[in-house]
Amino acid sequence: MLHANVAILESNEQFAQELKQFFAENTDLNVCGVSDDGIAGVDMIQNTNPDVILLSLILKGIDGFTVLDKLRESGKKYSVIVMGNFANEEIVSTAMSKGAKYYLIKPFAPEVAAARIMELLKNDYSAAGKNISIREKKSTASLDEKISNIFISIGIPPHIKGYNYLREGIKYAVAEPNIINNVTKELYPKIANHFDTTPSKVERAIRHAIEVAWNRGRIDAINAIFGVRVYIGTEKPTNSEFIALVADKLILEGIVNA
Q1: Backbone phi, then psi, for 113, in 5-degree steps?
Q2: DSSP labels, 68-118
Q3: Structural domain count, the chain
């Protein structure tokens, strides 16, 4: 059993304490330090050497981008999850280029942060040839987590509208598989009603999300996720095909009963 250390750099003290409390009660993640100041936060990180860092872009002293620069200048490799208030592609790209592994858009539930931390730890220890076992509240990831993991693997970024629309559509398709046969008249309107938008905007946003994934060229990752060579080259599925593909995978894995 691994007891991993997490450092939190967050200007909102209440949110930082919510994260700390959730980790303490539901995981084996130990919060080794909390700071709302970027300069003090860098010192804390260098003194405690945490396994994962939760880093807000808005801090006292220096901002999150500058913290990323200073961590990179130190020569040590840190696993950093950036927390930001803006769903701006340029901001996300900048954070990733400076070494962030994930970008979480606020507000988000502590469960989401815990899930991303678990992924980073498992990837880091797997790369090092070590086994990792961390106690979680659930032995099986939730449906939302499973879908999010698939999206992350194939390159659908969480800051675009189609991300949430797609996730909701897949959840509907898992619960009601036959809905995939009536996407235009039933599925899109249900998603639109949930997000207070229009079916046409839902359709366009989902199409854009799929195009983003395929334009990133992660075809091997896409085929690996589904266990077969589903799509080759630049060929991409329709909205209904993609939703059905992911829903079928989740149903076959028994996620509905998890």
Answers
A1: -60, -40
A2: HHHHHHTT----EEEEES---HHHHHHHHHTTEEEEEESS--HHHHHHHHH
A3: 2
**Domain span at 187:** 143-257
Q: Is residue 132 part of a domain?
A: no
| pLDDT of 91 | 87
Residues 149 and 224 in one domain: yes
The count of other CB atoms within 10 Å of the CB of residue 24 is 12
* Predicted pLDDT of residue 163: 92
Which of 18-22, 41-45, 70-74, 220-224 is predicted least confidently? 220-224
pLDDT of 41: 96
CATH code for the domain of 228: 1.10.10.10
- Which of 84, 101, 127 is the last residue in one of the domains? 127
Give the side-chain half-sphere CA count within 13 A for 38: 17
Average pLDDT, the chain: 83
Query: Is-contact 44 33, C-beta < 8 A?
Result: yes
Give every CB contact of residue 77 below 8 A, 6+ residues apart in sequence.
none
Q: Which CATH number covers residue 36?
A: 3.40.50.2300
Do 189 and 114 share a domain, yes or no? no
225 lies in a domain? yes
- pLDDT at 221 > cutoff 90: no
Q: What is the mean pLDDT of residues 135-148?
A: 60
**Is 138 inside any structural domain?**
no
The contacts of residue 44 (CB under 8 Å, 6+ apart) are 7, 33, 35
Helix (H, G, I), strand (E, B) or coil at 12: coil
